[in-house]
Design brief:
Length: 207
């Protein structure tokens, strides 16, 4: 069954709403330059209130490995998501579960995914200035071709209007939504969230 990750969680109310609507995972961004950054202690307080079946994923960008370990333990994460320019060697050193994110532009080669030893990976739209959360989509055909390398999480500009089209084309393991259900960076829009899950849950019932 298709899984759903809601990313950019910054407060307990949005975490609870996402969970109640049917999210399988929540993403917490520990990249300080992001408008959706959350302090690890605050994230830990939110995570502590969540049930065990919700996956808690920390998003990191070009962080020192020791910093990743510290926040992983401090916040009580289930997984880390490497969303920067981390190399295969860097990821091979990690001793915590990780998801590698790939920022996809027109020249992206899907075989790059095979260089990382992870069975779950994420594909997001490339931006010269931002590491995710841009609201931009990318060529979904590239994502469909990359599925052979493992469990694909599709991100990048997904929202209630286009999510079913994206799912139909890519048939991913999971979708990751952040800016597409926000009223402002880091604050979710309840109406958009409810519409998103209404469409996804109808799809889940049919599949």
């Amino acid at each position: 069954m298709l899984k759903v990750k809601i990313c950019g969680i910054t407060n307990a109310e949005d975490a609870k709403l996402a969970m109640d609507l049917g999210a399988d995972a929540l993403g917490f961004i520990f990249y300080e330059k992001s408008p959706r950054y959350i302090n690890p202690i605050k994230a830990g307080a939110i995570i502590e209130s969540l049930p065990a079946f919700i996956q808690k994923i920390g998003v990191f960008v070009n962080s020192e490995i020791e910093s990743v370990y510290q926040i992983f333990n401090e916040a009580g994460l289930s997984y880390t998501q490497m969303h920067g320019d981390e190399s295969p060697d860097y990821c091979a050193e990690l001793s915590v579960p990780y998801i590698k994110a790939f920022r996809v532009n027109t020249g992206f080669e899907t075989k790059l995914v095979s260089k990382f030893n992870c069975n779950t990976f994420l594909m997001d739209a490339y931006s010269k200035h931002f590491y995710g959360g841009t609201g931009e989509t990318f060529n979904w055909d590239l994502a469909a071709r990359a599925k052979k390398y493992g469990n694909l999480i599709l991100a990048g500009g997904l929202n209630p209007k286009n999510v079913l089209e994206a799912i139909s084309i890519v048939q991913p393991y999971a979708v990751d939504i952040s800016s597409g259900v926000e009223v402002s960076p880091g604050k979710k829009d309840e109406q958009k969230m409810r519409l998103l899950f209404k469409k996804i849950n109808e799809f889940r019932l049919k599949s």
